[in-house]
Request: fold
Amino acid sequence: MADKIHKPRPISGFPEWLPEIRAVEMQWLDKIRAVFESYGYGSIETPSVEEIDVLLAKGETDKEIYTINRLQAEESDDSEARLALHFDLTVPFARYTAQHFNNLTFPFKRYQVQKSWRGERPQKGRFREFTQCDIDVINVDNLPLHFDAELPAVMFEAYQALDIPPVELRLSNRKIVQGYLQGLGVEDITTVTRTLDKLDKIRADGVINALSELGLDETLAKKCLAIAEIKTDDDSFADKLSSLGVSSPLMEEGIAELKFVMQNLAHLPKGSIKADLGIIRGFDYYTGTILEAYLKDMPKIGAIGSGGRYDDLAGSFINQKLPGIGVSLGLTRLFAVLLEAGHITPAAKAPTQVLVILPDESRRAEAAATARTLRTRGYNVELFHSDAKVKKQLSYAEKKGIPFVWFPPFKDGQAHEVKDMTQGEQLKADPENW
RNA sequence: GCGGUCGUAGCUCAGUGGUAGAGCGCCGCGUUGUGGUCGCGGAUGUCGCGGGUUCAAACCCCGUCGAUCGCCCCA
Reply:
């Protein structure tokens, strides 16, 4: 034993799982990727770091990004101080698209499953290191509207593949809220929408109070609130909207778009799609369709995915107009929350399907050969690591959840046997054709 | 950055001023080639860290670090 032990502590906001839990997460990742690829999206990976200037080109995220530097760096050496860990995958994607513009085929459809980092204070369902599953399509000059329906559908299908509690997609369109508030004569639209975004949390009264603190009179505040309260299962949101008596060209454009999207998502299970004009989204690069995904039974944990359309995300990287739409599935939040809620059934502690017993050291070569034979036949096989008592070897299989234990011959001429650990029965078997 | 709560065995926690505990887990034994259950035995702690009060501190006080929940913001 060492003189001093550094007692390990969890690092706040940086989750890690036991093998049996990680195995489930890996299955999730496989399923999500399969859904993405089934629509023809291809994978890319970008570096964990980007230049700070790139990250700050869009959005207002200055204080939550982690910058990097070398521990041994000279004080005068700031060659790496310009780098920071990415806080999402959309900005790196935009940079990537601009950088590889000549070699990409448009519309460029890609997915990206990677970690992201945000230096916020962690709390329930909020991490500083988390995995995002992003899927975007980006095109030159303009992007057909039907992608605004395709991406939410892909996202929903990905959730469906995971065997999790019911998910609801809430959709809106930036142009509607923007146009509406402009029509009302609201000046500070960003602050007002940010307040409306809190409707679920602080309720109608809270929103009214917050808005009057911003200097809006009560009538105006109520009108602002009215739009955020519109939630419908189909395109009837438009009727409710028109009854508010405000109109603008921008708003009408948004209404038409959202109607189109809702109609093109009608094939999804009833109750899983909502037009919700209270959906705002924090990032300011969104210009049209916006959406958030929630667990129906656990809305309080926040969105488990989100996304939207942007007119020109890569505009600051290249002199081309590149509109796109993307959605991001917040894997870590979803996984962690469902794990805590007991919805995740742990897998076996190891992928081993067969444990080969080591009768004694003198038979190791023979047992290893048996293990190899079984492996070539496609099984995950472990040879026990020492010639411990059979009792101990079986107990190891039991603890690790290994379903089969293989008994190679203990004496010359003896037959192989295999034991089914769940049934308890043990039969003669041939490693060549078991 | 701000506020609340909590730090005792690997884990979950009990212990409110007088010898450091339980359950689970871990290791061993219950003989010869067979797991789970059961029985018996065993190991493991600077009671987060530093200071103060006291004859005496896991316990009271101050500070600090960490975790956690919430606010801001967000997946």
